[in-house]
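assembly run, all chains below
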Amino acid sequence: MMKIEKADRIKNLPPYLFAEIDRMTEEVKKKGKEIIDLGVGDPDLPTPQYIIDRLKDSCQDSVNHHYPSYSGMDDFRISVTRWYQKRFGVKLDYKTEVVSLIGSKEGIAHIPLAFVNPGDQVLIPSPAYPVYNSAALFAGGIPYVMPLLKKNNFLPDLAKIPPQVARAAKLIFLNYPNNPTAAVADKKFFSEVIRFAKKYQIIVCHDAAYTELFFDDYRPISFLEVEGAKEVGIEFHSLSKSFNMTGWRIGFAVGNSEVIEGLGKIKTNIDSGVFQAVQLAGVEALEGDDTWLKEMRKIYQDRRDVLCRGLRKIGFKVEDPKATFYVWIPVPPGRNSIEFASFLLNEAGVVTTPGVGLGEYGEGYIRMALTVSREVMNKAVERIREVL
Ligand SMILES: Cc1ncc(COP(=O)(O)O)c(C=O)c1O
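ok done. output:
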């Protein structure tokens, strides 16, 4: 028998906690308990019909059956620039400052390959979307953890990064509105990031996947709105959460042309772009009448209110998120995130994400996603109340 030995880069990945949660969920299901899943960050609402229709029509056209261009169709990239102008007042050159992605995850996973040499530091937040860490490791980079702490409004304290680390750093990942903490960033913070990046020559990769999910009168900003941002970095964006298109696999990166070019170079050697019919559906999403988005935000906001109010009533110290569809909840004193998430799953049949699964500084919290109906959300709160 041949021994199949995995490469170190796979062996060195942290254990995938979510597989364990899936296993436990299956066990609870087998016992006959109905599960309420607040664990996944996948919208329950469907993709709007006009976007689906554009895909259908585009599929019929054989022009779209070929290999797409590596960097994205002109039509798609132009739509991206129009959308950035309309939404953020940011001007972009579609030829050099935009690249299509097979979902923003793909770009995030590939960017270190273009800029990080083995041994370079990569600054990653904790807790965070886990792909920043694995992407850094795959490129041979050394992740340096920036804690996101409540006392700093879940923004990294750049002054705490030792100068020798900053000098050895090639890239910094940031994400606002933030998954999992739901924190938001303002121009002042982004300006600090730009100063820091210039000082130490660090490429900024801002993940803006959640800018369109906002509540009340808050409006998330783009990193690129801030003076000097384009000199130091790029922004990843996604149609997944903005337009309920997670399964479609389309996103994009925008910003500094040299950084976009580097990412493009990696992609040319790995993938062959996004199916053109999907890109044209993306054009429809970015340019079509999006008044329905207001309705969608109202639905999430209503669920947020049900969940946060409900949790506060039963003693949780939880704040209303201003954006994203996540709620970041401190676990009751004396408990830890894995133990408390297991307790909620086993006793209440409610799936949540233990904070520590998203990084060591996520300990002490669980994450709940607003991706079930108001009725189900109410039921989840009721069940938690019963078991506490
Ligand atoms: C912070 C963050 N960035 C990026 C992504 C990836 O989104 P997609 O690849 O669907 O564009 C996600 C998905 O959950 C996310 O939470």
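The chain has two domains: 8-46+292-387, 49-287.

Residues 41, 103-105, 129, 175, 179, 207, 209, 238, 240, 246, 251 surround pyridoxal-5'-phosphate (CB under 6 Å).

not gonna interpret more than that til we talk
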